[in-house]
Design a protein that fits this description.
The protein has 424 residues and is of the alpha+beta class. The protein contains 5 helices and 27 strands. A hairpin with a 4-residue loop joins strand 14 and strand 15.
Length: 424
């Protein structure tokens, strides 16, 4: 019995009929006067002026600038009385936000008005349960932070909670714009009600962060074929607790906080692309200079290539039959998972083998046996046999491979390629 080790497995996806693109040189046009456009503003969800419809605020990323909302919505929940004095005398132009804390830390908030003359105040409540908004309306809940300072031109209207802030409650008599951070615990939720006293004012940008010990990981999403950045949906979960840390839609890049002794599962999805999954931990990244993870998404289209890295092992019995060894199962299980996700996809499995060029016919036969061994394993994983075609490396391909070995001093080649024949 003999073992043959292949260090890299590549799942290659391609279609026929690549269309050529013609690049035409455009004639230069005379310069036109600059057009002054209205700044883009993020539309807020319906009824977000009311507590029951608070906007879920993502952590560690700026939200906004928002469109300006006018009025207090359908319900004026905030009213000052003799027992609750550190609140607004009534709502003016309000937006409600909700923050969920996925880990322990210090909750800090930055609020930046689009117009420096807008006078933003805000309250922060600790969320309790589904009856919370009713309790707020009846003044049975008191805010844990109340920031109602006068506009400070030095701070350009900015306000929030910071690590250097000292006070939990700031009154209108003060020009101190930032209050003290909140000691947050994993699982805590907070409600922010942001009030603009300026009628006809503009929107704002708000950013919340749970500050804690961590190492940063900057996630960049790239189209592997176009070799340029793209956007996608990103979900990050704590592997130990399955708690959702990040859930962002149509983002191009984002920062992930890796906490000590924590492992995270990253899932990236984009319509028309293969799903991307990656697992990373604090220990993997601590001390490394490179804090960027490039997620290369593979589009299902002409020329697409999906690479799965790992080790493949085969064994040959006394009858010269080749089969996949159990050390290869993890990689091939990923192939089966992809084929199950795309049940209409038909593929061609092409065996690859190192060659010395002495017997190309023998290498062709051997490479086909390995392609057949992969197909047999996938059939055992409930992939329909009629969806898979096999062939060995042709003499032309083997000769080209040998030339590459000599030119580039490459000795390791992919164990196989799987080429899409059709997707419908």
């Amino acid at each position: 019995m003999k073992r043959i080790l292949f260090l890299i497995f590549v799942l290659c996806i391609s279609f026929s009929g690549v269309s050529a693109q013609t690049i035409k040189k455009k004639k230069s046009k005379p310069k036109q006067p600059a057009v002054v456009e209205k700044p883009y503003e993020l539309p807020l969800p319906d009824r977000s002026s009311d507590c029951f419809f608070a906007v879920n605020l993502p952590l560690d990323s700026a939200f906004g600038p928002t469109e300006p909302l006018q009025g207090f919505g359908y319900v004026n929940e905030i009213r000052r009385d003799a027992q609750t004095k550190n609140v607004f005398d009534g709502e003016h132009n309000t937006v409600w936000y909700k923050i969920d804390c996925p880990y322990d830390g210090k909750l800090i908030i930055d609020i930046t008005p689009k117009s420096e003359t807008d006078d933003y105040d805000f309250l922060v409540y600790k969320y309790t349960d589904k009856y919370f908004c009713n309790r707020v309306e009846k003044n049975r809940v008191k805010p844990i932070r109340s920031i109602m300072s006068l506009s400070n031109s030095d701070k350009k209207g900015k306000t929030g909670l910071s690590l250097k802030g000292m006070m939990a409650n700031i009154t209108k008599e003060s020009t101190e714009g930032y209050g003290r951070y909140i000691d947050a615990k994993q699982g805590d939720s907070y409600i922010i009600v942001l009030d603009n006293l300026t009628d006809g004012g503009l929107g704002h940008t708000i950013r919340a962060e749970v500050y804690t010990e961590h190492t940063p990981l900057y996630l960049q999403i790239v189209d592997s074929i176009a070799k340029q950045r793209t956007t996608a949906n990103v979900v990050v979960r704590d592997a130990q607790t399955d708690l959702e840390i990040i859930n962002l839609t149509d983002v191009g890049s984002t920062k992930i906080k890796l906490l000590p002794q924590h492992t995270y599962n990253i899932s990236i999805t984009k319509p028309g692309y293969f799903n991307y999954k990656h697992t990373v931990s604090y220990e993997d990244r601590i001390g490394k200079k490179d804090s960027v993870l490039t997620a290369r998404l593979t589009e299902i289209k002409v020329g697409s290539i999906l690479k799965l890295n790992g080790e493949l092992y085969f064994e040959t019995d006394d009858n010269d039959s080749v089969s996949v060894m159990k050390e290869s199962y993890t990689i091939l299980d990923e192939v089966a998972k992809i084929l199950n996700e795309y049940p209409h996809m038909k593929v061609e499995i092409i065996g690859r083998i190192q060659t010395d060029g002495l017997n190309l016919n023998s290498d062709n036969i051997e490479s086909r046996k390995r392609a057949s061994a992969i197909k047999n394993y996938l059939v055992m994983k409930n992939i329909q046999e009629e969806r898979m075609f096999v062939r060995g490396s042709s003499k032309k391909e083997l000769q080209k491979q040998l030339e590459d070995q000599n030119k580039k001093n490459v000795t390791i080649f992919p164990a196989c390629e799987i080429t899409i024949k059709s997707v419908r």
